[in-house]
Structure formats: structure tokens, C-alpha cells
């Protein structure tokens, strides 16, 4: 395992805390958003990436006969946010994501802050990948009218992934799951609390795109944490618009069963 940034950057005065922090590291999968490749054409065709590639934007992998997701309240087509080819993902402990297939995330267009409802978002999971493009939807011109409202989301970005570890100190406190420093090291606690609060504030942008782990603490995220059920599945800050944050949460039993139908 690579040394996590926290342990690498730990000031020397906190070195006695290093074994304690290392024993409480949480694994997560960091999402690396690569350089934008191209915008979709005006007719909503012309995705330059492969149909099963991990990506933000573009066209989803969609077998013929699969209904494209729509908002159950407005009947509007949902925005295709991103898809993950699960074979690209590293395997991490205690986070049983699929090891094959395609996992996709969709969102309604006018979802208010902290809306927790399956009516307004959707996750699709395809356990097997069809290689014959004749069996896949390749003409997405039916999205052209809806796409005019999806400002920025016709941008296409390839995704790569890496396994990471961190303690998520501040996030655990927010979730009432604080790490308790051992009594024999308690004298370091107050000073360490001050240091790590400043340190993690600078780390938010480095960790906010991920699968698993804990939610990063933004100014509005408290409301998200209050209503969410289950564990963090995806946290994503859209590359085109840094104000757009997406959070998906899933219950452990549903993740273990690879059942993505009920997700907050």
C-alpha cells in the first residue's frame, strides 16, 4: 500500500500518533478525471470514446430494449452523468463493488438541494457487457431536445481510478463516528485536532471525486449527511461546473447484492 498523504505529511511532533492513524485508515477509490476529449456534436451524436469506456458525459452504454432513464415526476429525460466500467476499478477491502459490467449514474435536471428520492435520479447496472454494437443503441438523437438544457454536460472526460486510504478525520466527527485518540496519547489530541482541521480543509479538492470512503465537508454538506441512508457510494464534483456536487448513498445489504435500485 502506498503511504497515504496524511501519514506522509504528518508533522514530526505527531509521530507517536502514526500507528493509531494507520490502524484506522479507510480504503476508497479515487476517481481521476482526465483531460476533456471533445464536445458532442450539435445533433447529440459523435461520442469519440468507446461505448463501454469509463467516462463523464457522452453517450451511455445502452443495450437495445433498455429504456433510457427519465424523471418520474416530470417525465423529462435524465442527464447521463457518468459511467464506470467495473473492470477498471481496483479491488479494495470492505467495499464490494462489481468486478465486471457497467455502472451508470443519471440525474434529473432540476433537482433541488439535498433531494433524496429515487424519482429524481437513477443508477443502472449491466452485469454483462455486450460487445456486438448491433445490439446497442447508437443513435442518441432522441436526446437532442433535452440536451439543450444540459449545459456543460455534453463535455466528455475519460476516467481512471486508483486505490487510496485516508482516515477522514473531520468527516467522521460530522457523522458522530469520531476517532478516539488513546488515553496515553491524549496530550497530543487538542493540538492534533487543530492541525488536521486545517490540513483536511486543503485536502478536500484532492479527495472529493471518489467511490467509497466518507463525504468531504463542504459548506452545504451537513444537510446531505443528515438525510442520507447507508454508506457513501459516489461523491462527484463535476469538472465543467465546480458548484455541482453529486452524492449517492447505498445500504450495505444492497451493495453486497449488487442491487442499485434503491439509492439515496
Write the SSE topology.
Elements lengths: L4 H5 L8 H6 L2 E8 L4 E2 L15 E2 L22 E7 L16 E6 L13 E6 L17 H4 L7 E12 L2 H6 L14 H19 L2 E3 L8 H7 L3 E7 L7 E6 L1 H5 L8
Antiparallel strand pairs: 1-7, 1-8, 2-7, 3-4, 3-7, 4-5, 5-6, 8-9, 9-10
Written account of the structure:
- With 264 residues, the protein is of the alpha+beta class.
- The protein has one domain: Roll (Hypothetical protein YwqG fold).
- It contains 7 helices and 10 strands.
- The mean pLDDT is 85.
Instruction: Indicate the CATH class.
Output: Mainly Beta
Could you tell me the radius of gyration in angstroms? Answer: 20 Å
Kindly report the CATH topology.
Hypothetical protein YwqG fold
The assigned structural class equals alpha+beta
On the 0 to 100 scale, the average pLDDT is 85
Strand percentage lies at 15-25%
**CATH superfamily heading:** YwqG-like
* Element string (H = helix, E = strand): HHEEEEEEHEHHEHEEH
**Helix fraction?**
10-25%
Distance between the termini: 31 Å
Number of domains: 1
Strand count, sense and barrel status of the largest sheet are: 10 strands, antiparallel
CATH architecture: Roll
Number of helices: 7
Q: Quick one: overall form?
A: elongated
Stretches with pLDDT under 50, minimum 5 residues: none
Count all strands and give the number: 10
